[in-house]
Specification:
- This protein has one helix spanning 57-60; strands at 2-7, 13-18, 28-35, 38-40, 43-45, 48-54, 67-75, 81-82, 93-96, 105-113, 116-117, 124-126.
- The protein is mainly beta.
């Protein structure tokens, strides 16, 4: 919040508060690692994708505690949808255990800092 004091024609001070939104840098170098599913006796374990990224450079410069990441996933024909349950992820990785073998997925991560969302990270494509 930026405050400014202005003087009108009668030299009476007028205080104005203006909200300033500063862009947040996106997470860097997103990568994905696929762990293949296994078959054991009569049950089969589905594959998992672990998405990792480097912290947003803005996080090191701030004292705000309201910060984290939002993880998005899309299939080849769909749009990106949040898969982190609408909650911010406070780690630099996210494990997606809801993927299906042979389906192409894309992931993106955005940083959130004090209610401001960054642009998305580079997309990461995987086929488990």
């Amino acid at each position: 919040m930026l405050s400014a004091v202005l003087f009108c024609a009668l030299q009476t001070p007028v205080v104005m508060r203006v909200a300033v939104t500063v862009p947040v840098d996106p997470p860097q170098a997103a990568t994905a690692e696929v762990k293949r599913g296994r078959r054991f006796l009569f049950w089969r374990k589905d594959p998992t994708v672990t998405l990792k990224w480097q912290a947003s450079p803005d996080f090191a410069k701030t004292k705000f505690t309201s910060k984290g990441y939002m993880v998005y996933r899309a299939t080849a024909s769909g749009e990106f949808v949040s898969i982190s349950g609408g909650a911010l992820v406070n780690a630099l990785k996210y494990k997606d255990s809801t993927v299906k073998k042979g389906v192409a997925y894309q992931y993106r991560v955005t940083a959130w800092l004090n209610g401001v969302q960054s642009k998305p990270s580079n997309p990461v494509k995987v086929i488990p």
